[in-house]
User: What shape does this take?
Amino acid sequence: MTPPTTADEQTIHRIEAFSDIVIGFCLAEIGLSLSIPSTGATLANLSGNVLVFAASFSMVVTLWWNHHRLFKTYLVLNRVTLVMNFALLGGLVLMLYFLQIGARDITVQGGGPHFFLRLMLLSFAAVYALLAGMFAIGVRARWSALSPAILPGALSERRTCSQWRRHSPSWPLPWA
Assistant: This one.
């Protein structure tokens, strides 16, 4: 694989900046969805909103961190990964939209599991499938250039399936 050119690096930087803006807007939308209680009596209803906020925030921040690691180490710039990245960002926006609608139906209207929460889980799975696909493309293309320190635990040793069952590799945390 050829090393990225200056033009490729600039394009990757612009795509990463655009992605950070979309993710930042998602975080802002999550924050704006919190409502300020009008009275002390309505403060008790705030716990459901705070729980949805915390779950949404943690999902977006985890996605941002994994996206950052992808762009820092593994990303291969081509049409496929570019389309996958834009689909990932669109899926993230839809995921939060469906989560907010589903959470509103549960907390405000007292409903049970709702159609929009299923759509949120489906979009969550699609977002992480796209992220995993981008990682897979990058690792495959850059395999020979990756240092063992970058690859988690036993992956750098290229163990066979039978060796995986005998050993329990120590996988580093994503933020380590």
About this structure: The radius of gyration is 20 Å. Residues 6-145 form one domain. The chain has a mean pLDDT of 78. Residues 46-74 form the longest helix (29 residues).
